[in-house]
Amino acid sequence: MQEGSGLDENAADNPIRLALAADDPAAVEQIWDRYASDLLAYLQAVLCSRMDAEEALQEVFIRLVRKRRYLAQARNLRAYVFQIARHETATLVRRRRRQPKVADPWLVAVEGRDADQDLADDLAEALAVLPPEQRAVIVLKVYHEQTFHEIAETLGIPQNTAASRYRYGMEKLRGLLRSWQP
User: Fold this and answer.
1) 81-100 pLDDT per residue, tens
2) Sign, CA torsion 89/92/96/102
3) What angle do CA 121, 123, 129 make, to 5 degrees?
4) Chain-centroid distance, C-alpha 146
5) pTM of whole model > 0.90?
6) H runs (alpha helix) in the chain
């Protein structure tokens, strides 16, 4: 890659960046195809609500459309997209503090297995107790099978920080689940 070419080190994002630079309307759709699933997982992990996560995802993409010209110049497209998601999450959390909380199951087990759903409910409740930073790393690692390197890029943190948040979060999670067992 040439110095100053503006292309991302992640070659998979280069077609998106080029489409953004050309102001191609399909660029945002390409971003959706590439990142929406991971963004939704991240947002659900932080917000502990599928409904809130879907609302936040819509807001993220509205902001992406508005900032599409800046996206073409971002050094790391994935990090920039997730930075917008983090800002939207913070906005939604502030807004949520002023509204009554509504239960919204966001972790769902395989259909037809009640025992698994009970475990999924317990796990979702335990995950909700964790700090959002630890919860996000655990969900991205366990449910979306991302490496610590990918998680670090996604969340804009050092790889060692991602690994330690995972380790400390899993320790807390184990302790919580053990304390809830009959």
Assistant:
1) 988 998 888 887 777 665 54
2) negative
3) 110
4) 11
5) no
6) 14-21, 26-47, 50-66, 68-71, 77-97, 114-129, 132-138, 148-155, 159-180
